Amino acid sequence: MDGGCGATLETVRARMVGQQSDEKMTSMQKDFNVVKTDHEDRLKELEASVQKMLRSAVPGPNSNVVFSAPGDNTVSLKRVPIQQNRSESGLLLRLHDEFEKLRTNLQEKSKALLEKEAQLNETTLALIDAQDDLFRTSEKLILSDHKAATLEQERYILKNQVKDKTEKLDQALEKVNVSDTKISNLEKQLYKLVRSEANLKEEVGYYIWKLNKTAKEMKQLQANHTDLKAKHAKTKQQLRGTELDLMECYAGKTQSFCGFENDDVCGFTQENSTDDFDWTRGQGGTPSAGTGPDEDHTCKHPKAGHFMFIEASVKAPRQSAIMYSPKYRGFNGLCIGFYYHMYGRHVGTLNVYTKTENGEALESAWRAYGNQGNLWLEALLSIPKSLSKVGFQLVFEGITRNGYQGDIAVDDISVKDGECDSKTVTAVSVNADKVALDKLQSRRLRRYRQYRRQMRHNAKS
Fold first, then answer.
1. Going by C-beta distance under 8 Å and a sequence separation of 6 or more, which residues neighbour residue 38?
2. pLDDT, tens digit (0-9, with 9 covering 90-100), for 390-399
């Protein structure tokens, strides 16, 4: 039992003792009241009986006798005859005396009961003091029980600590036994190692002999490697020649011309993430008056032929539209030509860039700004051999100004092998990384080899 339970039990006991004492006091008070009431009732009954008897015994109407009963009640009797018997008078006197005795006895008993009541009150006070002492004793007992419970808990904790220490000691002893066993096993293994040392020496001699034999085989393999390396160099030279043939074949296919007459616009694509609007395929004139061409450059007719243009109406200044060409590639340098139309009071800028496959940034190739007149003009770009071999795309960027008369159009893009014939040609600079170009060439060579192996496999199957 802990301190809390002990305190509760002692408190309940003290309350029970107090309740029993209160019940005894209440019971004694009730008994006192019952006895007092009983005596008064008996006295009243006796007086009533006497009065009844006197009424029946006295016949005359001229005599009147009065008796006083205890308390405030007064009993009046009718008149008795003037002449009455002595025996009746003696009876009345005796009854009067008996009543007096009864009153005296009642008063004495009432006095005794009052003394008992006073003693009861004193006993009650003493009982209350005893209850207070019992309460204080209960509190001391509760504190003692609490201390005892605390000591018991501490003893339990110490017991658990001792138990834990004992378990740890047992574990340590067990580890010591395991360590002894391991040491014994290690000693046995050491003995086995000492015994096997001789066998190892013999094996070392065998491996030395095998190493010498392997060295001879290695020399033979090195000679074979030299032969294979020579064959590899020869094969590599043949592959390079084959690659040149493929490059020439590919260069022959790069001769192209685009007048934007088909719906696929020759494979040109729009930039959808970094620009503000798109290039538009048009026919005849542009929607805005006082700007743009009246007809395309290819067919030179308002109802025939198409071109690509940017519409400057409802555009904010410095907004751009970007368009990518297909990929171009050649073995030698290329000459790229295109026609542009920049007419109007608010014409902005037309930029042309080149972009390689591995290039993250665009390289500026050509630029025109402002009103160039209501006519189609030709621009020529000279693509160097290094850029042509890597492969590239043309990027057309149109930038608006503040006004609706700023339409820009392009048409008739041509790609030819060799250098440009005209003197008004713009040379395109190349800032591509040489290492990146070599990696690209190597990757394409690997793809060609894979293609050749696949073709051989298909031929055999």
1. none
2. 889 999 999 9
